[in-house]
Amino acid sequence: MMQELAEFLYKKGYSIKVLTTMPQHKLIEKRTEADLPIHRVENGVNVIRAKIPFQNRKELIFKALSQILSVPVLYKTFKLNNSEKIDIIIVYSPPLPLGIIGIILKKLYDSKFLLNIQDIFPQNAIDLGIIKNKYIVYFYELLERVIYKHADKISAHTQGCKEFLNTKKYIDAKKLITINNWIDISNTNVESTNSTYNEKFSLSNKFVIVSAGIMGPSQNLTLIIDLAERIVDLKEICFLLLGNGYEADKIKDLVKKKNLKNVIINDFIVENDYKLLIKEADLGIISLNPNNKTPVYPGKTLGFMAASLPIISFLHENSDGHKLIKDSNCGYTMVPNNSEEAESLLRFVYDNRRNLKKLGNNGYNFCKLHFSKEVILLKYENILHTLMNS
Questions:
Q1: What angle do CA 50, 52, 58 make, to 5 degrees?
Q2: Strand partners, 59
Q3: 3-state helix, strand, coil in the chain (%, to 5)
Q4: 4-20 pLDDT, tens per residue?
Q5: DSSP of 41-88, one letter per residue?
Q6: What is the DSSP letter of 84?
Q7: What contacts 240, CB < 8 A, 6 or more positions away?
Q8: What are the pLDDT digits (tens) for 164-202?
Q9: In CA terms, which of 39, 88, 123, 174 is 20 to 30 Å from 147?
Q10: Domains 2-185+372-389 and 187-370 share a fold
């Protein structure tokens, strides 16, 4: 998303610099970190990349260390590769420590600081029991308060997220704005040039249910494995799980232990291949841990909708995803109290699969109307004008 925002602003006449890390493994095709210079121009945008220690480690302790260490490394890299004044800084969170970069550059260049909240950390990690130590909780909540205080504007991508920040984190409503995430509808139409993923994974004549993204505690992937075990009698159904993360090995071991032949797990694939795959799938599945309390929903929801892929979702009660799926009529959603309820819904969806194409089209049309890249990026530009004139 940030790449699209940067390229949009460049085309509108702004001078743009992007400070980021080297791409993670598996997210780039036929390229290694050594192939990417620290500073280069990409589609008119000046991109500055830094190699962060432990960036590709999956263990939570190394992820935390990597995020903390990213602050001095990114700052030093930027200072060595920039000689121009910065007027506005846009920081994407999580990872939360990147907000410190926003504060430093704001003070250094007398700039405005826009913080874009995609998930509310550390609240999500506390709710899931990932962070339990009271001193670590105190550290991250202090860091959170400091970053929120220094941001000139804070954008949330759902109304529920904005209200949560206002009522639970006590951020002044005047500082908060809602700007939906966007999806490039035109960029979802891809054509196959080689063998399809149905052929690659032997999915011909299968009803393919796809899940994609980070495999961590928040995603509740054990529910999907329980579902796969419960519906083994439906021989046509196959679950395809794409991604990696802290719980990837756990999920693979669980599938192996249960000897499930209707589950295929694969690592991340490059963007164009992913778009092709979800075009070929029959149903997108989304699940979140019921212990989540924050109202956000997974970004892949919009990706499924833009690809006309109908959705079945199992989300916690507070998720804004329920409203999105119901308002768009793009699929089915519920708060599952147990695996039996989730199984009943999945069997219902499969029995009524003749309706799925219509639901997928509903999602596409809703995305086109409400989450158009052009419309939402113009809202970002208007916010930038407001910041500059404040």
A1: 140
A2: none
A3: 45, 20, 35
A4: 999 999 999 999 999 99
A5: EETTEEEEEEPPTTTT--SHHHHHHHHHHHHHHHHHHHHHT--S--SE
A6: S
A7: 201, 203, 208, 209, 210, 211, 264, 266, 277, 281
A8: 999 999 999 999 999 999 988 876 555 554 456 667 777
A9: 39
A10: yes
* Structure token digits, residue 309: 């892929």
Confidence of residue 203 (pLDDT cuts 50, 70, 90): confident
Report the predicted TM-score, pTM, of the whole model to 2 decimal places.
Answer: 0.86
327: tokens are: 């308002």
User: Could you report the per-residue pLDDT of 24-75, keeping only the tens digit for each?
Assistant: 654 444 455 556 789 999 999 999 999 999 888 878 889 899 999 999 999 9
Under a CB-based contact definition with an 8 Å cutoff, are residues 207 and 353 in contact?
yes
**Which residues are 39's β-sheet partners?**
48
Domain 2-185+372-389 CATH class label:
alpha beta
The ranges assigned to domains in the chain are 2-185+372-389, 187-370
Are 151 and 113 in contact by the 8 Å Cβ rule? The answer is yes
Q: Is the domain 187-370 a CATH 3.90.180.10 member?
A: no
Cα Rg of the chain (Å, integer): 21
| DSSP of 87-137 | SEEEEEESSTTHHHHHHHHHHHHT-EEEEEESS-TTHHHHHTTS---HHHH
User: Going along 187-262, which residue ranges are E strands?
Assistant: 207-214, 237-244
What the block records as the tokens of 84 is 């121009």
